[in-house]
Amino acid sequence: KLLENFFIMAKNRFLLLFFIFSLSFSTLIISSSSYNPTNINIINPKNNLPNTLLKKGYVSMSIILENTLNNFISSSPNTTNFTIFCPTEKAFLKIFPKYQDPPNRLIQYHIVPLGLNKNVLETFFHRGSKLKTLLLDHSIVVTKLPRSEKVSINNVDIAEWDVYNDGRVIVHGIEEFFDPALETLLFYGHNIGSSSGVEKKTEQKTYRLSCFGGRGLYRRS
Hints:
Elements: H1 2-33, H2 49-55, H3 59-73, E1 82-87, H4 89-95, H5 103-108, E2 111-112, H6 118-124, E3 130-132, E4 139-141, E5 152-153, E6 156-165, E7 169-174
Parallel strand pairs: 1-7
Antiparallel strand pairs: 1-2, 3-4, 5-6, 6-7
Family: Belongs to the fasciclin-like AGP family.
Domain FAS1: 46-182
InterPro entries: FAS1_dom_sf, FAS1_domain, Fasciclin-like_AGP
């Protein structure tokens, strides 16, 4: 049994390393073919985001963001503030035996083009507030009231606030990956980016969406 568990862990770690390599390589190819000198440069020698994540135990996201973040944010050239929801190492190891979708899309789904520190999120947003992500036409949703014991988004708890905050980029640690295939749409009338600031509570609905060509993030048994 111990030997079997060892091989399972070794396989998961190999898949994780392969994922990080493939993500970095594919993003570098895209970046070289779509270079824009006006792009915002978040990762630079004066910025210690990757090192901070590494020291705090978010090893996989540290490597991924060091190689990909500048390319991801080029899709929002007029935005200067970003919030990244960073899965733990345990979440990375848990997801890869089930992983199907393009890794770039998954990481983009965890980046919001807004500066959302703990105080802002708890003060200005409520259950059902939708936060647009860098993944086109996809939002994450606040699913637990801010004054609960823990704030959750897409039913995933925020485990560690302000892992990193330099005034432009904010990183919060989360216990699991957000699953785009289980995107929760809670209609409370208030939506980020809407012209109306009036809250009009309407019927709450939950939809199970099949994103990315109908496959979803996880295999279903």
